[in-house]
Amino acid sequence: MKTYNLDETHIIQLEEKNRKIALSTDDLHVWYGDNEAIKGVSLQFEENKITSLIGPSGCGKSTYLRSLNRMNDEIDGTNITGKIMYENTDVNSKIVDVYEMRKHIGMVFQRPNPFSKSIYGNITFALKQHGIKDKKQLDEIVETSLKQAALWDQVKDDLNKSALALSGGQQQRLCIARAIAMKPDVLLLDEPASALDPISTSKVEETLINLKEDYTIIIVTHNMQQASRISDYTAFFYMGQVMEYDKTRKIFTRPKIQATDDYVSGHFG
Ligand SMILES: Nc1ncnc2c1ncn2[C@@H]1O[C@H](COP(=O)(O)OP(=O)(O)OP(=O)(O)O)[C@@H](O)[C@H]1O
């Protein structure tokens, strides 16, 4: 297998281009026991844009994504150093209220994971836990979130139906609706379409493109076409570090780093 010079990287700094940054990491390292899965990643994510995280299996994409709203806290033996800056707060600081922070930085997982509740109940569950009890307000949030997730027209007459009776693609859009019902600023998605058929995938992609008007989206994907179709920026991960980060168009047409070029043109991974 070809080896690459890991010291040669190309990472754009968005603040130098006067872009508004919703979230950033500075020298982020993540260890699982002795295994250093993320080796000092510094990236800035532009507000109201979609950024794709791509790279071969095991290079640390999901680990990095999960760190951004502290999902790795739940894995024993994990150690994380470095900064994750969101609105002048270091998300990685011990004093951060993780429950509260996840209202601002929400997550959607690879496999649709609706609760065994009605469509309405899926969306209102966390809202109620956060103290929203007013029926009219809940109704409004349910409608808005389902509309934003492009699911409203299909389910509006049957909100009491079990979420588990929806198709896989509809379930995933319900999970997106559930995440955006909390009105996060940043939405993290870990291969949200990998378990879906092509039609459902394209619906999820359309949904994400529409959502970026209101949200900053960071998505892990193995699907190169998907990354190039939907994202504004792309970060290429390799062996726990980012080799190249730039506008998606550049990554897919004129990458500056050989490893990126080989990966996006299908030579490995
Ligand atoms: N829960 C965990 N416990 C221990 N090690 C883990 C855990 N999750 C991931 N790892 C290790 O961290 C490294 C990065 O894995 P990660 O899942 O982040 O990569 P990935 O790029 O998302 O891979 P894939 O594309 O296959 O999902 C790998 O060496 C993996 O074995």
State the helical fraction: 25-40%
Euclidean distance between termini CA atoms: 11 Å
CATH topology-level fold name: Rossmann fold
User: How would a crystallographer describe the biggest sheet?
Assistant: 7 strands, mixed
Mean pLDDT over the full residue set:
94
H/E element sequence: EEEEHEEHEHHHHEHEHEEHH
Bound molecules: adenosine-5'-triphosphate
CATH class: Alpha Beta
Provide a descriptive summary of the structure in words.
The chain has 269 residues and is of the alpha/beta class. It is built from ten helices and eleven strands. A seven-stranded mixed beta sheet has the order 1-11-10-4-9-8-7, with helices on both faces. A four-stranded antiparallel beta sheet has the order 3-2-5-6, covered by helices on one side. Strand 2 and strand 3 form a beta hairpin. Helix 6 runs parallel beside helix 7. Bound molecules: adenosine-5'-triphosphate (ATP). Adenosine-5'-triphosphate (ATP) binds next to strand 3 and helix 1. This is Phosphate ABC transporter ATP-binding protein.
Can you give keywords for this protein?
ATP binding; alpha/beta; ATP-binding; 4-stranded antiparallel β-sheet; cell membrane; membrane; Rossmann fold; 10 helices; 7-stranded mixed β-sheet; 11 strands; globular
